[in-house]
Every structure is written in structure tokens, then in C-alpha cells.
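Below is how a single chain appears once it has passed through the pipeline. First comes the sequence as given, then the structure the pipeline wrote out for it. We keep one example in the README because the format questions we get most often are answered faster by looking than by reading.
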Amino acid sequence: MTGGPDHDWLFSRTRAGRARGPGAARALLDRLGAPDRHFTALRVVGTNGKGSTCAMLEAGLLAAGVRVGRFTSPHLTRYEERIRLQGHDLDPARTADFIAWAKEHAPDAAFFDLTLALACLAFAREGVELAVMEAGVGGVSDATQALSTVCAVALTNVALDHTATLGPTLREIARDKALAARPGVPLLTTATGEALEVVREVTAEIGAPLFTPGTHPALFALPRPPRLAGAHQHANAALALATLRLLGHGAGVDAALDATHPARLERFEVGAKTVLLDGAHNPHATGALAASVPHADVLLFGNLARKDTAATLAPLLAVAPVRVFTAPGDPATPPHALAEKYGGEALPDPQAALFRALDLTPPGGTLLITGSLYLAGTVRVLLVAALASP
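Resulting structure:
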């Protein structure tokens, strides 16, 4: 992932033990003149699939003639990927101007709150009508809960992740995400099982209309599969299409289904070898990935230490007999420990690990790279460069 001196200052603004929640974000937005009150927000929450759903929503809204902003995280290679205007990444000059302001007026604000504020400021200044806003972690406990004008909440799914922040049980995590609901504001979800039960309870308590494939099958119907690969993308597409239809933007359905999103089972052909790149970074996501890619010749895997690495890796062990482990960021789960426990080679440097994994992949074979969006971002730059070289 790339940045610069200004970006480095921004990345250093960690929460440092401060409580999460929308309060600080709301105060920062108010200090900027409440730019979020100048556009309507469509919140996207859930454990996995948020980025893909946001990409489909953005494509559909653009095709329907809506002036659109998109706020997502994390970025793969450039910070400005997080904030998009009319389908284009934010101009880095805007980031630099905002950082200069923040250094003077909000030096203690957290990174995510600052990025959210920058997005809202850009959307307001550019006359965005509808902004697709991805939650960072959770729902009611996330900074995006501070947004003032929300027309709908789209909840992808719920699984065990960020348990230290959201709670140790699926029910607690589901409740935090479901509490993104607002009175009278529709909540759409493709969640199932216990998570859906919690969502039903919460929306009934709050008075938010609930839309699911079970209650409104026509709304969630897929006329054809989405362009994004993997069976799990069908649920993301169904949620995106239902949201577009409910908001009166059904004209964007075809464009939504044709949307692409990097590092979501993204395919590269390197010589006579196929490389599949995916940002799956928790057990729910790697389980879905393993169902979509039941076999590969080589697995290149790296996971951050704060994740449940054993459970994240487990669904992938049967996928590939040859494994290379690396470090996607700091702190990472030590690759040498993974290689010793699960068999394979350890190369902490992602570039060296990629080249070794490619060497181990036979002609006509498949290399699967996953475990972290940070790893995906680093490796994707290398793959694009390799394909661009003569």
C-alpha cells in the first residue's frame, strides 16, 4: 500500500485505546459544518462482502443517473481508493489540503474518523446526491453511525470477527450490526440463521421496515449471475439489487451485476499459470472462498496477528497441497510458525513469497493468494507490474 509523508501522519492517528463509537466522528463532522447533512447516505454493514456490495451499488447508481459518492475501507494500494466521486478515486490534492487542516484543528482525531470526515466534506462540495457508506467495524458502534441522513441500511451477513470489539458471540455481533437500523428507515439483509433472528428482533424494537429474500423474494431476485466470481457473490448481488430496486433505481441492475472489484477472486494469467487473488481474512470469508475454489496447486497465505489465524486458514488446508506463508503487515501471524505447524515454506517478505509461490506452481496450474486485504494489495501491485513488463 502506498502513501506519502502526509499519509503517514494520517495513518499514525490510531485510536490508542480510545472508545469506539460515533460520538467523536459526529463532533468532527460538526466542526466542519456538518457536511453529511448535504447528501443522503446508504449504509452498508456486515462481516464480509461489504466492499463487493458497495462496488455493485456504486455501479448501479451511476448507471441510474445518480450523482454518487462511495466510502469504503481498507484500500488496496492507494489511500484515495477509500473515497470515490462519480466512480473515480479522490484527488490526492484534496487529501493533502484536509490533512493540513486536521493537523491544526483536529490533531487528536482518529484515522477512521478523519477519513470519514474527508469523505463527507468531498461529497458535500461535489454535490453528491447519494453516498454509499461502508461501516468499518460493527454497526451502532461504528463511526458511520454518526451520519445524519440515512435512506437505507444494507446488512450483508454476520459471522465471528472483531470479537474483542463487538462481543464474543454471534448474537452480540449481530445485535451491534443490526442496531445500525433507524426508525422508519428500511433495513435489507441476506443474513441467515441466528443472525437473522437477531435482526428481526432489533428491527421490530426500533421500528425499521425489514426486507429479506424470504419476505420479499422478487426484490432480491437475480436475473443472471454477477460478474464477480464465487457463489458468495450471489448473496452480495441480491442485496445490492434489492437495495437499488427499493430506492427506485432499478435501472441500474444490469450495471450492478457487471461491476468488478479488485482482489475479490480476481484472476491473473502469469505465463502459463493462473493466479487467483482474494482478500478473505476471516473464517467466514475463507470458508466461502474454499467453496468457490475447491482446488489449487499452491496456496500463498498471510494473516494479521489480531485475527483468528488457525480458524481462517482451516478451510484452505484441503484446497492446496503446497503452501507458502508470508507476513501481510505488522504485526502478522509469524509465517515460520505457520509453516512449521501446517507444512510449507515461510518467506516473510511478500514479494519473495510471491515469486517462490509462482515457482512452485506448475505450468497450467493455479496459485491461490489470500488471508489479508493488506497482502492482496501488496501482491496485486507486483502482479500488475509483472503483466505490464515486456
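The radius of gyration is 20 Å.

See the next section for the split statistics.
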